[in-house]
Design goal:
mainly beta, 0% helix
């Protein structure tokens, strides 16, 4: 029911920057958090960064100081500014949006993913 559309992925050199964007639409329930996950070949999907309704943010240790997550006040868009990119940042990046269902359960919605490749 909720659709997430990502943009901004691509190929960059080490040390370069990319900005990922994601827009959510069609949600019947309140979105309480949005974030970015990534998955490299042969590895588990991992949290990169998230931002909640109260503005609190979480970052993976590997990206602290390099990546910045932000969202608009309506919580229907989320951005990820990625600076000082490293080859190990190469992965498919997925946008996520958590909505709150009756009874207090949270439903995680996923975008289709966008490829980020960091290589010389």
């Amino acid at each position: 029911q909720v659709q997430l559309v990502e943009s901004g992925g691509g190929l960059v050199q080490p040390g370069g920057s990319l900005r990922l964007s994601c827009a959510a639409s069609g949600s019947r329930f309140s979105i309480v958090a949005m974030g970015w996950y990534r998955q490299a070949p042969g590895k588990q999907r991992e949290l990169v960064a998230s931002i909640a309704t109260d503005g609190s943010k979480n970052y993976a240790d590997s990206v602290k100081g390099r990546f910045t997550i932000s969202s608009d006040n309506a919580k229907n868009t989320v951005n990820l500014q990625m600076n000082s990119l490293k080859p190990e940042d190469t992965a498919v990046y997925y946008c996520s949006a958590d909505d709150l269902r009756p009874g207090g359960s949270r439903w995680r919605n996923w975008g289709q993913g966008t490829q980020v490749t960091v290589s010389s």
